[in-house]
């Protein structure tokens, strides 16, 4: 494949850049940019609000649709139970089971209609009425649950009810996200739905030139989607402000905390009036996230979709191959030969380190595989380019570090291969969640070596929860460590035998 190789070589020269936050490679937890900001937000002063002086604003726009009002409580209860939705908190409105019940403006409904979706996802069904009623909320839902629209569509309604932006005003809706990839995806959705309503949005993230982002901000945007570091930078430099911000979204809050963004988030939130509406989204609910909710939200309602314990999407077939490090390449080759003979074959291969990602990419391309690599040391421009090549199928194999493990939403990824097992079962769940997006199915293959032994019990718990067959060698490993691996679901289900077979 000379075309690929030439391009790749040219791009290789750009690899030497300093690691950035959001990289997630090297097996580390990413982390905020070290040194770049010194003490981030040092120059930002905590605001002291005099509520009597602040202009009043509206945040409750919810009018229950008659179809929702008429729906018998039993039907509502059955719906919530069947969708595994639980609600905690007072005065939570009833869910809306159909799109028309949300009373979104026509231009929003037109975009929804074009998607051909059957109904709101559970997080939308319960999240929309809550968000529209102006309440603070926490949404705990898996990746791919439809949460972006769960907060963006009510944001559009919120903005439409506020006075127009004036010269020098900052955004009305601020979405904080952990990575550039997620921020860009959210902005794509914001742009798609905002276009018809003439709402402007900007995506503010590090690793890209500041000029265009500043120009957009200065032109006036209703919606700003930002990673914390770059936003702090702009706030300190006075390039934007949060005086008009009344709708705050923290997306993937757990991930932001994992990456060490807590100080930045706190600095940013200090700049926003306390009577704002705050919506926090997270895949998990550990005590650090709960603390954030306690500090930032008022009398909030919490929606959980699925088990509170982070669990894998049940539409994914999970296959674990217990092997040695030296066997991985051979196994990968056999696996890819099989996968590439399938009609739908888009595949992400996860490695632990950036170096391994580069090595594997180089070797595979040398052998003619249509593979491209992505990790946190690559320039933003290159990451965008690689993602597009992958998205549009020009390179159906993406080799990635954990930079791509969360948030990445490429609809037709059919396979995920964990060439290296990740740091935690949580990361495992996020990685394999790149396949089986929006009700589709997918397959995840995982190479699990004796070096990963201490993670065996956690992985078994994830597999059990998702009713997956469990490789006996994995059980043995957990038992050898004195884990809880034994017993339970030991045998392979018949329909899975063949596929498991190739990995034995
Ligand atoms: P998210 O969790 O926001 O990343 O969304 C995951 C995927 O679900 C995206 O590809 C959306 O386009 C898709 N999606 C959003 N809402 C719905 C819906 N009501 N029905 C089916 N798919 C949806």
Descriptive account of the structure:
This protein is α/β, with parallel strands linked by helices and 504 residues long. It is built from 19 helices and 14 strands. It has helices at residues 2-12, 66-70, 73-82, 106-115, 122-132, 147-160, 180-194, 210-219, 228-236, 253-258, 262-270, 287-296, 328-340, 354-366, 380-391, 425-432, 456-465, 472-480, 497-501; strands at residues 85-88, 137-140, 173-176, 201-204, 223-226, 247-250, 277-282, 301-305, 316-322, 347-350, 371-374, 397-400, 415-418, 442-448. Helix 5 runs parallel beside helix 6 (147-160). The longest helix is centred in the middle third of the chain and has 15 residues, at 180-194. Mean pLDDT is 85; it is low at 1-37 and 484-504.
Keywords, separated by commas or semicolons:
disordered N terminus, RNA binding, 13% strand, Helicase_ATP-bd, globular, ATP-binding, binds adenosine monophosphate, 504 residues, 8-stranded mixed β-sheet, 19 helices, alpha/beta, RNA-binding, 38% helix, disordered C terminus
